[in-house]
Design brief:
Radius of gyration: 21 Å
Order of helices and strands: HEHEEEHEEEEEEH
Strand order of the largest sheet: 1-9-10-4-3-2
Structural class: alpha+beta
Number of domains: 1
């Protein structure tokens, strides 16, 4: 009887430990926060600003920057857009962030609604092997696979569409 009870406890523990559902964390694109963030919140965790953008034509934004952040030895580019409030970021900034991110992001200078920084939102990719010449570029693609709105901040995050949201959340978690 003791061995049967012991076996039941071990089996139950294994089922709970392994879980029967997917352990992947649910990452949200839009998350409210009462905290008002500034560029200094990002630079304090190692974000390096390369360029400051003119936001006079970016509705509601109080600042926007292009730069990079290293996490676990990997460096990724980010565009940070700051608004006065979470409501402003969502109502005035979400559509413009979605427009320039993802596999179908508008990256041509004349395509995007807000054209400032458009050259920083694209990357060369899709190389093919040309023998002794090495890899040759075959196209220009959107750099930012996704975006996240956290509080009053919009982050455009480098990476393939499927993993860029995690890249956003890595930086968000660093400032929290």
């Amino acid at each position: 009887m003791k061995s049967m009870f012991f076996l039941l406890i071990i089996t139950t523990t294994l089922i709970i430990a392994c879980g029967s559902s997917d352990n992947s964390e649910s990452l949200e694109v839009i998350t409210p926060s009462e905290q008002i963030f500034s560029l200094e919140d990002f630079t304090s965790v190692g974000y390096k600003k390369n360029r400051t953008y003119d936001v006079s034509e970016l509705p509601g934004a109080t600042g926007a920057w292009f730069g990079f952040w290293k996490n676990n030895g990997e460096s990724n580019d980010f565009e940070i857009r700051i608004y006065s409030s979470h409501e402003d970021a969502v109502s005035m900034g979400e559509e413009l962030a979605a427009e320039v991110s993802g596999n179908d992001g508008l990256i041509g200078k004349d395509e995007a609604t807000w054209q400032e920084g458009s050259k920083d939102r694209r990357q060369v990719g899709g190389g093919v092997d040309k023998g002794s010449l090495g890899l040759q570029a075959t196209g220009i693609f959107p750099k930012y696979g996704n975006y996240a709105i956290y509080g009053n901040v919009i982050l455009l995050c480098e990476g393939q569409e499927e993993i860029a949201l995690q890249t956003c959340w890595d930086l968000i978690n660093a400032i929290k």
